[in-house]
Amino acid sequence: MTFRLPSLAIVMALVLACAGPALSQGSRIKDIASLQSGRDNQLIGYGLVVGLQGTGDSLRSSPFTEQSMRAMLQNLGISTQGGQSAAKNVAAVMVTANLPPFASPGSRIDATVSSLGDSTSLRGGTLVMTSLSGADGQIYAVAQGSVVVSGFTAQGQAATVQEGVTTSGRVPNGAIIERELPSKFKDTANLVLQLRNPDFSTALGMAKRINAYSQTAFGTRIAEARDSQEVVVQKPGPADLTQLMADIENLIVETDTPAKVVINERTGTIVIGADVRVSKVAVSYGTLTVQVNETPQVVQPQAFSNGRTAVQPQTDIVASKDGGTVATLEGPDLRTLVSGLNSIGVKPDGIIAILQGIKSAGALQAELVLQ
């Protein structure tokens, strides 16, 4: 039996944003910001999936499934008086969807179906007409159609094989929009652009770039950075709002991001930003290996001694320490930092411990994010 200290069984991946000195790169406004009035709206509904091949809810464990089935049949004019049903081809599900911005009645969107009871699989089922409501309680879409499930389950008497999730699926283009949002795009007096990665430098740069465009096109300044996330654009009098947004979203802006090092110890992923700096610091890394060997021996009693055969444990423990080299590490840019980490000769699983130690010593000039 062998184990290592520190016990980091991690495969590391370095995602390098830039191989040399940090340089800001230009991006379109549509790629770094979104329109506040152009966001999605979430919809939710409760429905039934029918036509399952014996993998539906057990009506005894999920009484709400039977209640929903009886209510549906009564609405269709079918009497449900009588004994309790034992069908296993119906499952109660929650249906969710995202209503895209500026969606018009009659257009279709995808719907996601998730089992609510003890159904084992939704494969082969059909979602019965289900109304989807928004946060205001109004019905905005109606979903119906065949459920597509990517996972599968195969079960025998002594073994079971399952891949993926069989209790959740999608209904492609299964929801039809019945009601549009009350607000219209051209009813707004201004445009509010929200940065996906809030940053004051990027927000100010976006406002300056939009104002440079508006000075040429309209002879006035129309943009103002409200904070690190929002940039407000006033509509000029003669401008068409749709054309204005189309022109603005294609403008190129120099983006800026804070220096961060993101570490995920579960997957062993390390992401080092381009602006990460390391002050001069001495680093030593060694791995302690402890090997435990168990070689039990069988001890036989002497002849005619009426003794018993016994097992005598015997344990050999060997401890060894590798590495321990002290090296000076300094990273004025990303290339030098990565080269310095590689020059220590440490295995990838030790870089996480080194970065945490450098941060504790105050030599890592970046935010360390642990996931």
UniProtKB/TrEMBL annotation:
Keywords: Bacterial flagellum, Cell projection, Cilium, Flagellum, Periplasm, Signal. The keyword Signal applies. The keyword Signal applies. It comes from the Bacteria. It is found in: Bacterial flagellum basal body. Residues 1-24 form the signal peptide. InterPro entries: Flag_FlgI. It holds the Pfam family FlgI. The basal body constitutes a major portion of the flagellar organelle and consists of four rings (L,P,S, and M) mounted on a central rod. Assembles around the rod to form the L-ring and probably protects the motor/basal body from shearing forces during rotation. Belongs to the FlgI family. This is Flagellar P-ring protein.
